[in-house]
Amino acid sequence: QPRRAQGLLDGLDPDQRAAAERVAGPLLIVAGPGTGKTRTLTHRIAHLVAERGVAPQGCLAITFTRRAADELRERLTGLLPDEAARMTVTTFHGLGSLILREQAGRAGLTRDFGIADEAQRLVIAAELCGSEAQGRKLLAQRDRGAGTAPDSDTGTDTGTGTGTGTDDSAAEADYERRLRERNLADFTDLLRLPVRLLDADPDLAAAYRDRWPWVSVDEYQDIDGTQYALLRLLTTADGNLTAIGDPDQAIYGFRGADVGFFLRFAQDFPAARSVRLTRNYRSNATIVAAAVQAIAPTSLVPGRALRAVGDFSDPPRIGLHVAADERAEASFVARAIDRLLGGTSLHSLDSGRVTDDGHDGLGFGDVSVLYRTDAQSAALMSAFDNAGIPFQKRSHDRLLARPGVRALAAELAHQSQGPLTERVRAAVAALCERAGTDTETVTDLRTAGELVAPLAARAGDDLSGFLAELSLGAEVDALDPRADRVALLTLHAAKGLEYPVVFLVGCEDGMLPFRFPGAERDDEAEERRLFFVGLTRAQQRLYLSRARERTRYKTVREAAASPFLAAIGPELTMPVDEESATRKRPSDRQLRLI
Ligand code: ATP
Ligand code: MG
């Protein structure tokens, strides 16, 4: 067999290979960005299945975002085209949804229960509390508690509040009852209900453990209490659990994730073996050095070793740009991209890759622009439009929050004939026809129909499964990794990804670290980790920019440089001004200086 002869571990270095060859028992892979953690995870699973006789349907791989799950699945499919389809590769919410659908009856739901969107949740909460404002409060309280682990030792369920006897918890229990009456679960339920069901029925938990004896979790540093509780129910202390992560990339503390679970893995799983990876294959030496300096003041990994081993000769310095305001910053980014790609975009709308004139063969799809808050994307998009630079944006909207997608979901309910993909297409066409000349609605619908078709294909002909897929696309993951467009991403959305060229904009005190105007300085460690995540997405070229003045909440405000910039040594950076960025067709050597 050629696959065996070639060997699935050949593409790994000795440390990665040691991790992948650890067949049974708990395993922790602790390593910095770009060290091949995700690569090791996928090769390890493929090795187990193809070379160690593990059944693919016994493999469960979990991550946090839809995009990351898709990427895991793609990489596994690349390694094992036939077997990958039989593995369960999903997000934590997807896993919860799968278990809940199978056990719906026990939770007061039917198999085709719906997932409540924000609007539905608010209607129910407002009705219960007597006003929309009170309803919002209830939902905010529920969302805050979503990551809090139900305490299974004492049998009390502190997470949901049932049984604690306070008014708040009674209201929340009422809210849950009303959801059930409508055959709905919300996002919080998707994790909490499976935890409750498995916790209450040890045989059921054991059945799921038998089903998936091989569990892997990527980005383990971002796990919250409820997800951890679910994972503990699905594994035993000496089970085959592989956890992978980097404490210095923990960026979801604000919504209940707790890096403490990562740090105490060895206590939770005493049989665990721990592997460290130190070679960074992603970024050039300058970028790695800057990232290590940037995280050092509050690193959670003492004595972190991270060295660049990629094949990058003569790496350019990191470009620093100071702009007058956010519009000037955006136009700097647009011009710099234009120069990097050989100056095609300002002259034509052709988005073809520029490979013929020595500019490293970079295309638009090799570039990403990262920012702290979604609001920063507006200035960038308009600058890109003006410059004719094609882009795609990833936002955090719920897919179902888009009017086009909502209309589509409603319309679909009436289309019972034909396979689902066909019905989606028919529904989009019908809606577009009805929208008539309202171009904005038509555009929104068409985008929705693109977004939606692959989900429909994946869901087969199961309408409820399809709608669940829709709501689980918590981020509008319209980002096509193969499209030749510049990617606009929040720092949170960029985790796990890599791009040859990265612009990190808004490096200002108050934006990164983020603070509401006028607010006190807060714990900045998580913001610094976010900065670290941003720097380490870059493979070859990195630019950091800031504006002296920025309009925030409709007010123009002065902004000082981000304190995080000060940690990066001057020997690694170089100022880049508008002039050098707009210099016509620089030579390759000049380009390196930009
Ligand atoms: P992050 O912390 O950002 O998620 P990671 O540790 O998961 O990073 P990967 O995305 O798995 O890193 O790998 C980073 C890059 O390095 C990828 O392009 C990957 O293919 C490459 N890489 C990893 N290991 C090797 C190796 N042994 N040989 C060649 N390339 C490698
Ligand atoms: Mg990774």
UniProtKB/TrEMBL annotation:
Annotated binding of ATP, by residue: 31-38
* GO terms for MF: 3'-5' DNA helicase activity; ATP binding; DNA binding; hydrolase activity
EC class name:
isomerase
Give GO terms for biological process: recombinational repair
Question: GO CC terms for this protein?
Answer: cytosol; DNA helicase complex
Quick one: where's region Disordered?
140-174
Q: What residues does the UvrD-like helicase ATP-binding domain cover?
A: 10-284
**Bias-annotated ranges (Low complexity):** 146-157
Catalyzed reactions per annotation: ATP + H2O = ADP + phosphate + H(+); Couples ATP hydrolysis with the unwinding of duplex DNA by translocating in the 3'-5' direction
Keyword vocabulary terms for this entry: ATP-binding, DNA-binding, Helicase, Hydrolase, Isomerase, Nucleotide-binding
UvrD-like helicase C-terminal domain boundaries: 285-561
Enzyme Commission (EC) number: 5.6.2.4
Family statement drawn from the similarity comment of this UniProt entry: Belongs to the helicase family. UvrD subfamily.
Descriptive protein name: DNA 3'-5' helicase
Which residues of the parent chain are present? 486 to 1079 of 1079
